[in-house]
From TrEMBL, chains A, B, C, D:
Family label: Belongs to the threonine aldolase family.
Organism of this sequence: Oceanidesulfovibrio indonesiensis
Glycosyltransferase found in the keyword field: no
Lineage: Bacteria, Pseudomonadati, Thermodesulfobacteriota, Desulfovibrionia, Desulfovibrionales
The protein's name: Threonine aldolase
Signal peptide: none
Keyword set includes 4Fe-4S: no
GO BP field: amino acid metabolic process
Length: 341, 341, 341, 341
């Protein structure tokens, strides 16, 4: 039975598992000096261009924090949406590792704008205030919303103009690419992103995320930072080969498309149930809905998922690369039963 | 000519300077094992009770950060007003030294309430979120407002109930005590404050602040934390004797009363000038006002002060222990001239 | 062709790969609330007793640093051998994450003694000095040497007596257990170890290490520390199931025995080659030898390995769970050729 | 009665106290935008050249740590003598604030050489090891020894050659200048020092040290680092004016000469007492001696001082700018009595 709690409840995609098997041949030098890592880096250069440099870490929080470590010093601050994963869901990892302040700004479904960032720049030059040096956006946002290319370009240009570095948390970027039907580069490099956290774990990998530095010079000392951050993988080939399998084929986008399609179906079925209201635009693989707390409790006996906003109450349901129409039907049926009781 | 930019533009009170002279006799063991430190600690026990423990550091930012270091671990967060000095005016010192997240909440003139804090406690028990462990209030606030004893009690009781530690930034607590006409203990220990930053520098000392731990056990390892935080004063006697001179007499409260009175006078005079609007309640030694930017520029040619909120525009004027009625008259006259041009 | 550079050049043991396959069934809640994690924790309780608590992280450096995080505060120091992995091979990760000082003491083949630790304790109580709070030993050491149970007991008793916490880096503890023919508990819990880094990656896992807290109370806030340290695994089941497969059977000890046996064979064959001197006792799966630099260069054209001490010169060769007698024969033959040229 | 425990047991020199009085006139803008700070910076440019930049902090530990903060990143290490103040007497402040590893090397009376540093550079380029980036020397050393100009030049050239930055802890540099009879620049800038901690507190100031950056570019972001490090002085004029008084006249060197002369006298008198052995060259204002523990205890009843090395036992006696021949005579007499009993 499949869960709608999070896309990380899904397993490992069969093609990825197969690649892991194949990588398990003989010996390989550790820490990245192996052929799978070499190939995975090439694969990502294929997506982001020859000037880009990709490195691998274990998980998304580390991808975000280490990517930002290349952009800010401790006395500088990172501007992000109040809802950003780095701001809410990393237990202060950025503050502790970077020593930097995170400044949350108002947002719409997790999306921020130059207008929201601009007022913070008045603190520049005053040593009493953390100095804004980087902006971090999440595509798609933690609330399932999408930045359009124009919205991203506007932020990218603003950052260039204001000498701010731009980081993108792309934990679910495959879902964004599928929804916008654009290339990975179009959503990142081409809009002015300096550093990207390229998600893998939520899209069918066993573990592992990539940090893509879009320009030379940004990753000069990265390998030392990664080691000190406890993110240097010893048997790197097993992490790299997963990226090779996913981004060296269309698997990444197919998985994103599937999850998005199932979310649309789920929203449609759930929205049709009396008393259930879909509360946010369904643009990727997240569905937010409000329903009575009693029905939530009943439904939770069959399916585990998270209550996002208890006061409303609002719940979050997520689909994944392996969600089937059957899963959605079963879930919708259970939802209906829960609402009827 | 006196400044209205900040109470730290004032000098050292003559009685404090006199005490520094007298302490400059022969040799004394360093790092706090001297008679002046012993006496200063006794003097503060006189204010806060025998169960309290006071320690000295160089400045207010350190008093705040080291006080909080006794209350939170890196994975825990500190809740404060968005306008709090620790959140805005310490260049990320708390984040860097504590490794902790600061969470700013909505406020009225810098004052927060249990209602504003409560929603943050839902994150408790979820390892993805910084765990709320301490609340920090500023008395009076950075906007010159005062918490009433009842407002502080409400926060104190809420913290006890919710197992949150309570820190008070008392950089200008003498002004608060003067305004509320209550003892230092009544505003701190008696309302449930665990740790107090007791201000000295803004009230006539040359340098130095005290951290007062209201209960035994809180300062067990303080002296190691202070040394590692680069705040252990070698010739401690010169810092301690200033506290002896100020808090062993009525000097602290007299200075607070004087500054407050001059602020009231300034607000009255300035408020009477056409086009100048006093924008916040004048409860201690800060006066906030709005006036045309052009007049601000003109006035700044005679008196240096800060523009607090450029969009409005709103300015901040502060009085100090040595502000005279003449100073205020001269400033008000200059203000009138600036508005007339 | 197999490498003798490090035991992390070996791949994933077939039984572990098989377990990963089997775990790849349907959905599972993330972050450790899955049946494999539950079982893996039980399996480790079987080894270390019901009072122990095990948690999983991605790699050995994190196991060491997070284990120590439960034992020291930033103003406290960790005492270890100058050669300890935490002191030499973690790029300052302990200093950065803990904020603590590491103090290296003299050693014999990586082994330290109470006599070497005792002089450091004179700094206790002086706030100018980092306060010794924990001792870290590596079993077997980075130089392949073994502590006897009596040597460990002596350190354990000294630590208890002196109120020092004892950490053990057990990245290769399976090799130690195989060599001493004792249980994991006998070498750790029973000699006074408080926290153990239990190695997996160097003994046939794909990734993952366990931190075993030997007493209740030590891991109270571990899950928050782990998240803030960027070590909370989202799809935990895939990490846990590897520990289940390895420590729920005899695989761990068999792998250790095999690697040790092959090291003895390698030492015998290599030691028989004219001009090659085995420089340290071969007690586990590491062989240290000295030979002319020219021969080293020649041999390196066939086999990659590390020069440990260039001045001597001394090299390190390591065997792993999958090293065969054939591998050793081929290596010894190549060594002979290299020495003959 | 004067102490021989440390030169920080002495008080404030009358000329410095006088300057503090004179600075206490009217109002001044805080944080360094005052005329005394402007003048003090000019005074130090007079010593170190127009290309130098000086900044002020509260104390020596901060001067060292913030100076080093301009030279290393967290994954880089600082090489120093095992006896260095930064390594032994700052309770891990460098590790905590910098996140960097300190690596102590063998020394002679606290002096290190290129030969002692060179072997550590082999770790360069290996991400597993902290990367050596800076060398820190103390002039004079914590053991009272002096580097000759040639010894310093040798280290400076080695550092330039090896692309290492050079920091000097000059907490007692006035004593060194007096002993070597050279200018401050000759001992620092001219031998290749990048950043100097210029001591004040041990030579007659009430508080305060300067950090002198010898080249433009090194202090670009210093003021933010200082604020985040809790070292930005609000009433800066009182700190600056002390440097103006001391380094704008010959007071600094006269104080150093006096303390050194008294140390020589003390060594002569003490060395003449039967059973007392002067254990180290007396080159500045420290005298190290060995004598029976019982005599130490007796002498301590009259004079407080530190036992440096209990096993020997070896004691440290320090003279200061205000030590008189009478003080030395009285101390020598007490020493004799202690030895006779």
């Amino acid at each position: 039975m499949r869960s709608f709690a999070s896309d990380n409840n899904a397993g490992v995609h069969p093609q990825v598992m197969e690649a892991l098997q194949q990588a398990n041949e003989g010996h390989a030098v550790g820490y990245g000096a192996d052929v799978h890592t070499e190939r995975a880096v090439e694969v990502l250069k294929g997506h982001f261009g020859p000037q880009s440099e990709a490195h691998f870490v274990f998980l998304g929080t580390a991808a975000n924090v280490l990517g930002l470590a290349a952009l800010v010093r401790p006395y500088q601050s990172v501007i992000c949406a109040e809802t950003a994963h780095i701001n809410n869901d990393e237990c202060g990892a950025p503050e502790r590792f970077l020593g930097s302040k995170l400044v949350g700004v108002p947002h719409t479904d997790g999306k921020i704008t130059p207008e929201a960032i601009a007022p913070l720049l008045e603190s520049r030059g005053f040593e009493h205030h953390s100095q804004p040096a980087a902006v971090s956006v999440t595509q798609p946002t933690e609330l399932g919303a999408l930045y359009s290319l124009d919205e991203l370009k506007a932020i990218g240009e603003f950052c260039k103009q204001e000498n701010l570095r731009l980081h993108m948390d792309g934990a679910r970027i495959a879902n964004a690419a599928a929804a916008l039907d654009v290339s990975l580069a179009a959503m990142t490099r081409d809009v002015g992103v300096d550093v990207l956290s390229l998600g893998g774990g939520k899209n069918g990998l066993m573990y592992g995320e990539a940090i893509v530095f879009m320009r030379p010079g940004l990753d000069t000392d990265f390998r030392y930072v990664r080691k000190q951050a406890m993110q240097l993988v010893s048997k790197m080939r097993y992490l790299s080969v997963q990226f090779e399998a996913m981004f060296g084929t269309d698997l990444w986008i197919e998985n994103g498309q599937r999850a998005n399609a199932m979310a649309r179906l789920l929203a449609e079925k759930a929205g049709a149930v009396d008393g259930v209201e879909i509360t946010r635009p369904v643009e990727t693989n997240a569905v937010f809905a409000s329903m009575p707390m009693q029905a939530i409790e009943t439904l939770k006996q069959e399916f585990f998922f998270y209550v996002w906003e208890p006061t409303r109450p609002e719940v979050r349901w997520m689909t994944s690369f392996d969600t089937t129409e059957d899963d959605v039907e079963r879930f919708a049926a259970a939802l209906k039963r829960a609402m009827d009781t």
